[in-house]
């Protein structure tokens, strides 16, 4: 499909469109605050498939045309693929993004000791690419290395990089997603690789953790496609969180906290798509109603946490 074009720096910046992320819809457990209130105890595969299909239908009806999944999001690719199979006429209008490099190992259990396993190797790519093709019923438009960090082998493995270059030459937009306190370093390293296969990035940016912003601006200026994930900080920047200062700013701005957080991300001039992790139609509608904050920029900036502390707290979150 024709995706949102890069921003013209000489033109007024329109809010970035929303995409729908399936991280919380493809598996029974995740780290989003307030998850129990949305899902209850029915986390069976059929129930989760039904909820995913419902949210995809709602997103389509609301005009959302960018969908994000990953091999590690449980059955997210499978759920998306079965929805696409039921609506084949919609595929040409959609941009489908997925990711490789993590495997889901939770066994569809809430109490799994480990939910994901990371491996950035050529063998992993060669295993997961055909799995993505089979689950989705065809190739995604964008395929990203999942959670690239500066020490990832994906930045130095020549055979792997050549395979990614082959994918890019075939018409797949190859890219990276980033996580951790050194997102900017990982992104800059991927961007300046000789004959880099990468031209798209999905990064965590939110009012609590905006440190990757300058690196995203550099990537966007170089023509990269920029997708923002975790704009509501895994539920911390929603009514289910406990961020009193952010909530007070949102109230003063006349928005719900999640709308303030999403609106702040959509207002960034380098953002091409901002993902909503909504699992209920009302959540998606609130995200769509977001607008750029009118709050003082310094007040918003004061919400930022030390990146190392932010990511340590994220790593400690319970799966529920």
Automatic annotation (TrEMBL):
Cited Pfam families: Aldo_ket_red (PF00248)
Report the protein name in the record.
Aldo/keto reductase
Question: Domain NADP-dependent oxidoreductase: where?
Answer: 52-290
Which species? Agromyces kandeliae
Q: Which SUPFAM superfamilies match?
A: NAD(P)-linked oxidoreductase
């Amino acid at each position: 499909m024709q995706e949102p074009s890069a921003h013209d720096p000489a033109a007024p910046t329109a809010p970035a469109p929303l995409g729908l992320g399936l991280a919380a819809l493809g598996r029974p457990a995740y780290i989003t605050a307030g998850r129990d209130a949305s899902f209850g105890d029915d986390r069976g595969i059929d129930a989760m498939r039904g909820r995913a299909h419902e949210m995809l239908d709602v997103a389509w009806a609301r005009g959302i045309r960018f969908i994000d999944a990953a091999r590690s999001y449980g059955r997210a690719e499978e759920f998306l693929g079965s929805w696409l199979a039921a609506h084949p006429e919609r595929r040409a209008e959609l941009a489908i993004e997925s990711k490789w490099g993590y495997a889901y190992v939770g066994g569809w259990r809430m109490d799994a000791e480990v939910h994901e396993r990371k491996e950035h190797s050529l063998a992993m790519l060669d295993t997961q690419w055909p799995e993505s093709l089979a689950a989705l019923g065809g190739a995604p438009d964008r395929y990203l290395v999942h959670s690239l960090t500066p020490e990832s082998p994906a930045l130095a493995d020549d055979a792997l990089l050549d395979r990614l270059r082959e994918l890019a030459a075939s018409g797949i937009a190859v890219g990276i997603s980033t996580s951790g306190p050194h997102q900017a370093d990982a992104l800059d390293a991927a961007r300046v690789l000789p004959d880099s296969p990468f031209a798209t990035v999905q990064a965590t940016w939110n009012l609590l953790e905006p440190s990757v912003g300058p690196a995203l601006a550099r990537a966007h200026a170089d023509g990269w496609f920029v997708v923002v994930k975790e704009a509501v900080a895994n539920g911390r920047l929603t009514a289910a969180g406990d961020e009193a200062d952010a909530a007070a700013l949102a109230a003063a701005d006349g928005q719900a906290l999640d709308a303030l957080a999403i609106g702040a991300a959509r207002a960034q001039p380098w953002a091409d798509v901002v993902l909503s992790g909504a699992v209920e139609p009302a959540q998606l509608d609130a995200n769509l109603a977001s607008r750029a904050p009118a709050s003082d920029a310094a007040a918003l900036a004061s919400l930022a946490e030390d990146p190392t502390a932010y990511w340590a707290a994220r790593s400690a979150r319970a799966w529920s």
